[in-house]
Amino acid sequence: MKNHTRGDDRLNYRAIMHRALQCCIPIWLCLLSLPARSATLDSQVTVKIAAQPLENALLQLAEQASLQLVLNPRIVKSRRAQALAGKMSIREALDRLLRNTGLGYQWSGDHTVTIAPPADFRAASEEGLSGAPDVSSGSSSHADPRERGFAGSAGAAGNAPADPPGDSQASVGRLQEVIVTAQKRRQRAFDVPISLVVYDSEELAKRRITDLENLQYYVPGLWVQDTGTQRRIVLQGISNVYGNGPLVGEYLDEADITPEVFAGSYGFGQLDPSMYDLQRVEVLRGPQGTLYGEGSMGGTIRFITNKPVLDQFQMSSEVSASFTEYGAPSQSIDMMLNVPLIQDQLGLRLAGESAHEGGWIDQPAANVKNFNSQNRVDTRIEALWTPTEDFRLNATEVIHRNAFGPNAGEDAQGNYTQVFNQTATPSGEDNYDMSNLTGTYGFDGIQLLSSTTYFSVGANEQNEGLFEALGPLIYDVLIPSFPVSSRDFSQEFRLARTGGGPWQWTLGGFFKHFTDHSDESYYFGAPVSPGTPLSTVPFGSFDERDTSKSWSAFGDTSYKLLGRLTLGGGVRVFRDHESEVDSYDALQRATFASTDPRVYVQYQLDPNLNTYASAAKGFRSGGFNSYGLPQYQPESVWTYQLGMKSRLLEGRLRVDGDVYLSHYANYVVVGVTPFNPTVSLSSNAGNVRIRGIEGEVTWRLSNEWALSFNGDYTDAKIVSVSLLDAPYAVGAEAPGVPKYMFTTAAERDFSWNGRPAFARLDYSQTGPQSGRDIAGNPLFYSDVIRMLGFNTGLWWNDNLKLGLFAQNLLNDRGHLDWNYDEGNGARPRPRTFGIDFAVDFGR
Fold first, then answer.
1. Higher-confidence residue: 770 or 801?
2. Does the pTM exceed 0.70?
3. Which terminus of the chain faces fewer neighbouring Cβ atoms within 10 Å, N or C?
4. Cα 89 from chain centroid (whole Å)
């Protein structure tokens, strides 16, 4: 905690908040007078569904009609549906699919449909839940979901956005099953034989997850080392500061946004997509090399956006203001606009975010306060064209601009001291543009997909100061400028079976061309006396250019036997042609290759209990050393996993868990060379063994109360090191891996003056992680991080939501990562309080 007062900042904050409210209230009053629009069961859709099991038919209808679907798989087991084809209303399609099944449906608006026996709806109505009328097979309800209170969020289906204020699941008291595309085909999360964490838009909003830095506190096994421009992601114990490229892949819909080569290895260029107007986030834990390729050794994070809705106008906006203790105030505004241009054929969706995040770190020597403030603008534009029922074309453009002061280097009092006793203030920028064009064509239960992606990244750190150990000495390093730019083009073609039946398969090919350029300048020398001019300190520079052209072919298939046993497997063949030229070497070239299989078996003990076992390989490519030193080869990991997923108590209790064992081979370690203690060598000289356990429990006690817990424990040990002078020892903990993580939450859904409201409390704790510097100096540990957050919201009317929130209520100010010894260590944002207003029309 800082030892000085911030009275002036608090007065400024109150004045800003007062002016903001004065400006916002008239705007909200005007918006409230606008009429709301709602979708209806009479909306016309074009469907093409073959005769098949009822569950598969309903999932296809959800996709083709952009519906959110809520159902318990047990109630549709052994039932079949007739074929449907042509243009019809949603009502007619549901009536025909459910005919003679003994099941009914309830329409809750916002494209959400619940399938259940009519008795369930009647029982809910008898319990006094508003909007839950008698429903028999083929009947419906147009009740407003905001009259039912808040409940577990729906699995997003098709293009429908998740329902922000509630859903029909409250009427039956069950948790909803999310539909995901983790295996590049639509499945319930329950059916995916992967350790998987999914948060849809409502969960993201209730937990106030707005970026990767927030997400890490809610996904055990996920850790993000983030200084602003440098961003390294750790998942399921796969961590390494060194090596070539990232260890966790990233996808935005079908766009591969994973950087490679220099940009990925040092954390530059690792994108941080905005999480506003997302349908869901899927975190796939464990190697995903077969389906997602290089850089997915630890797993893959998929950001799934809300697609344009082609049959109605939609608009939403959210404004928030917050105050950080001992820091500056923050403000943000998010907006979404959805416009059908040609009814049922062409639509446009715009989502934007403009945020100023107030800083809290001071630099007394330069008389600068709160220099780590951040100004961020994100814009996403999506167009969807469906000229026929079989063809879809989706175009996406993302523009990201971020100027900031890095959140690193502060002491326990919240102050920053520059190296060499200079007064230069660190700053940075992180900008990128991403374009994607995805087209799909479906025929006879098979889908052909083409995804073309281009992104460019420009990042720069200025006046970065750190301490660096080389050999027995610790040096001061001041980096006046460190610009990094990268460009990436990728193309994927994929053919996959989408129809029902026991046999599913996917075949594809992938090409990627990546280039980056870095140009670092630095002052380098042993600590000097205060006031020493930089002109007396040695100056150096380093320029590097990298290129990677890679291609891969992959396939994955599964077959379901006897309705319960599923056998599956796949393989990916990868080739990477790399080149590098830097300040110390002529052009270097090499080709790196990897073959990455995956096998799994899944057994469904009953409709509510799935078990699975899998073995999968992940990899990342090799790279180069300077000074003519030999190159290093690709790293790889084999992970063996045993897990189960269960849905108990009539769907009100969800229990998932798994244990895993990973062998991380060819681990890149760095040591100093004997001929020069200031020259380092990267080498495949280590092996790491990782053992872990993960679990998740979510329990909806009633329509009003829900509890959740998820956590993990990771034991990552170095089991062999063959490089002389490496800063590692056999039996030591692998660097940068949190020992454990867990999060727990309690949510209360209630009514206030007849309007739905919720209150939520989240607590997370992350254990320490260890590491050594390049010279092998004594082991450093990060701190145990304890985060407590509170969020509450009230739908004031059908269109307006009001909210209050608090983050880091315990004001934990420990070090987030182990390398604080080099002045790079970051601490969490101090205690923060805020308010927000949200409006929503047409959904």
1. 801
2. yes
3. N
4. 35
